[in-house]
Amino acid sequence: MAIARVGSSEKVYSPNKRSKRNAYLLLAPGLLWLLLFFVFPLLNLAETSTKTPSPTFETGEFVQSFRFANFIDAFLANQAQFYRSFTYALAATIIALAIAYPLAYSIAFRSGAWKNFLLILVIAPFFTSFLLRTLAWKQILGAEGPVVFILKFLGILPDGATITATAFSVILGLTYNFLPFMTLPIYASLDRLDYRLIEASGDLYANGATTFRKVTLPLSMPGVVAGTLLTFIPASGDYINAQLLGSPDNFMIGNVINSRFFRVVDYPTAAALSFTLMTTILILVIIYIRRSGTDELV
Amino acid sequence: MSEPKKVQGDLILSNITKSFGDFVAVDDLSLRIEQGSFFALLGPSGCGKTTTLRMMAGLEEPTSGKICIGDTDITDTKPYDRPVNTVFQNYALFPHLTIHENVAFGLRRRGVKEIDPAVEKVLNLVELAHLKNRKPSQLSGGQQQRIALARAIVNKPALLLLDEPLGALDLKLRRQMQIELKWIQTEVGITFVHVTHDQEEAMTMADTVAVMNNGKIEQMGSPADLYENPKTVFVANFLGQSNFIDGTLESSDGASVVANIQGTRITFPKARNNASGKDLKVGIRPEKFRLHSAGDSVNGNVLTGGIITDISFFGVSTQYLVEMAWKQELMVFEQNDGGAPDLEKGDAVTLSWEPQFTFALDANSN
Amino acid sequence: MSNDFREMPKDPKTRSLINAQISRRGLLAAAGGVGAVALLASCGSDSEIAAGSFPEDEGGTVRWANWTAYMDQKRVDGERTYPSLNKFIEQTGIDVDYLVKYNDNDEFYAQVQEKLKAGDDIGYDIVTPTDWMAARWIRLGYARELDSANIPNKGNILDTLSDISFDPGRNYSMTWQSGFAGFGWNKDLVDEDILSLDQLFSEKYKGRVMVLSEMRDTIGIILQYQGVDISKQFSEDQFMNAIDFLKQKISDGYIRQVKGNDYLEDMANGDALAVIGWSGDMFSENLGGQNYGFAIPESGGTLWSDNMLIASTSSNKSNSEKLINHYYDPAIAAEVAAWVNYICPVKGAQEEMEKIDPTLAESPFIFPDAETLSKVQVFRGLSAEEEFNYSDAFQEAIGA
Predict the structure, then answer these.
(1) What is the pLDDT of residues B28-53, one digit of tens each?
(2) Where in chain B are all domains bearing CATH 3.40.50.300?
(3) Chain A residue numbers touching C392 (CB-CB < 8 A)
(4) Which CATH number does the domain housing residue A256 bear?
(5) What is the pTM of this model?
(6) CB < 8 Å & 24+ apart, contacts of C332-340
(7) Which residues of chain C neighbour A244 with C-beta distances below 8 Å?
């Protein structure tokens, strides 16, 4: 009976009501989680963002007055930090991509027996705290540290110049810290790539470079898209790197949100900034995914 | 974007050896494949046939030896510079490209101007022009197989390599594709080199079959030749089934040979004696035997004193196991065409066969 | 100051960084301060303060939330013990749960704020906020008035600390330890004593100077340099002048970074040659073998304190007061000071210190003389509106 049904009807592939209900049941914990930990806080954030300080200016006391100008004020006052967040994050993403792709490629195709060892090396930084790793860079790049000493000795760095407390060191820190997030998805998509497709491309008159451009790269795009998002999104919201490796001239929007929230106790501004940041990232991500999804990749 | 040189002629492999570390995959193999022929490399897995094919494609480098097409040495030519295309085992269609773009891939790389008409034509040949805007994942296995073929032949290579191209298809589709492949090969006139472990597939399609074992070619010839006159036990067993009876050569005069097998004297054509010494392994294929009730008078080579120990009904034929006086069980296929007597387990029988269906190998051959 | 049990940096900002790092692992934090969302959810309710209605005194164990490495310690069989605290327990039979819970004034406040508001037990009887945060607690009615009868040693508090703007007469708070903010420098790289802001912001240190992210310390020193008495009422204009001065020094590239306690790392690796920093740090680093100098600015430094307060939700008031009293016993205070090396707020402790360690008794960092104290001021308490606006202006000035 079952055999008879398979060939005869298209209905075989459409889920019946019961399996649909089961699907929703299976989704329920996830949806609940999203609701509890994303939607509710988000609504709270939205609600907070239009409040104003209470008449007494009491610490942490705010009243709802639907002041949407909070968004404009917050944005105008911190344009430089917004701009910096996105340019630093973009720079870090591009540099990380330039480093991670060849790295992931070598691990996926050229590492042989070393593959697992190299993958562990990629993940190894996660075994120590993000903060400690960044502090380590601060030591390495410090004004009296080894790197500056060597560069000054070689005459590459002029006297009095430093590496830390510059945009360079912040971007370097961001790149370093998020490199694994770039490397791993690219590695995963390359590792999944059927090597026969690369052979097929060669067989069809494509040389190494053309094969990379027409086959390897397009097929690893899901990894590239995932990697760039996993780097860009947290990097644009990061404040630790700017805090530790930058100067006040390198502070990003994350630093502002952090200080509004913890130091000034100005929750509405912190909320408005967070909301603006989130929305901006969301829009950028949607544009990016749309573009990388519909573009003719070959 | 390199335009491969116009290369034509027979494919010649000279003393090709390929080792992976200590393992010799292909051992001093020499081979000539006639231009325009359908050639099959047949053998069990691990016999070196795929490695041989990959060396033809340029995907592996021979450890030593030479590969030529006509007068052109292509041993060191990169795959993308060879006038060779491959239909890969699992098709290796580019999942991110449409069918049209998959087929056009090689043409674009070579900078061919008129791409669309060429693609259209080859898609018509494989009867899938209507699917040209689909992605490979939207096609069935058989359709993908045909696209893989179209993608290769559209380039009009001097040599088309097929690596177990039908392995992933079900039996019915495989039969159909065997016929289509043969037809297409005739149509386009390209040299096809087909690697398979399926003897039926090889015999159905190929003009010439080379049976490979342990990195060497055991025997090469037309399918019928290989089947009827195998030169080694391996070939005899790899292509169909065989009964082997130990015997000794008694005399050899003119066109025929007399041999003694387990006390019975038989004759067969001299051309069928592939043994160099006196001790023989005499081979008779199961379907060549005729079964008779004991005591019937029969012509040709005859073996008496058999007892039926097992009967299996196959539809087209029936298989009998007959135990001989020297305790060897022989296998017999009888067509179910009413020609054979009604026999049951335990019946005493006589076996006969036409002398020209005998083949003899050295006793120590294997 | 011994570094034995210095688990967390003293600076609130560093602490918050470390703790933010933990919450970074949370779901949304990576998207930039969005992690604050979850915290926001716990703030901002408009319920009125349950002022005036305090819990009945039920006695029992006193629970004390304090900062790291802020109590005399001793390892006994590998276990950390607090000798001065054990004396209190032996003498009174009152049990004490000493909890190292303070990493950051703001963070600690954020954790207990809701409960304070609702009048639910926050889990601590004694808390130890810094002056300005203590001011907030008192202003909001989150601190209980101290009963002098239970604190006979109250009069032992140093005169400079006895009458401060946020708690005139010390009715709600008693100082735990104090410290100075002034100039610190690395003697290996700086060959002079830095005594003024002009010296600090001179060409030779340009780009290698760091100032504290504690507003009251950095701005307090600038204000005094500009001739403003920070212990008395000053105008918003005066404050903003100091902010402008700071902004200018940042944008001109004199100030490399604005930092919390982690400026010590910058001094160690040479990024910072000179700083506006804290006395205790320079002192402790001296003990640690570092060659640092410290001076109170000629124009005036700041004096800050951490204060013991009894939370409004405490049901263990009298025992808590007895504990506060215990630490105003000069001998006990000297015992603590000998370990933590901060300014001891108790009169007579210096004499007691003679018995423990005569060298420490001479230290102006633990027992500042009148001349030293004349050079420092306590930053006045700010109104809620001032605190909001000034801290906003300060954060903006330092780029965040």
Answers:
(1) 999 999 999 999 999 999 899 999 99
(2) 11-233
(3) 264, 266
(4) 1.10.3720.10
(5) 0.77
(6) C332/C84, C332/C87, C332/C88, C333/C156, C335/C72, C335/C83, C335/C84, C336/C71, C336/C72, C336/C84, C336/C177, C337/C177, C337/C366, C338/C72, C339/C2, C339/C71, C339/C72, C339/C73, C340/C1, C340/C69, C340/C70, C340/C71, C340/C72, C340/C177
(7) 17, 262
